[in-house]
Design a protein that fits this description.
mainly alpha, Arc Repressor Mutant, subunit A, globular, about 150 residues
Amino acid sequence: MARLYLSPVNETRATLESLIVSAHRLTRVAAQSTGDQTSPAVWRTLAILENDGPMRLGELALASRVAQPTMSKMVQNLVADEWVRRIADVDDSRSWLIAPSPKGQRALAAWRETVATAAAPLFDGLDASEWATLASAAAILRERLVGNRVAA
């Protein structure tokens, strides 16, 4: 089959689109196979807090892509589970910042390990070169995303 010519810009966009769609699908398939019933929004929210640090409820809702009332309820549940904690906002004494607790950080680390274990069979049979390619891609993604806090 003949390959359709794509300009360098379109090739880049097509590659990025494929990468994003595949990463989302990999996460979804692996998460579903664990049988865990925790909302993906919980894991996403904990990951945002871990990566970006404490933030106000509204900022966290935007970063996690949920409505503020939904985030308010989620934070209530996470506080009750001791996965997050509220800390005083030094810039505004009327506000609170939401931060991950050590228990929440351990839960997120365990979840990531569980999902990685669940995804492992999808990669059975890869050779050393293919693993090196995946490791390189993962390193590039980490490098490009460091410090890219979601703007509120």
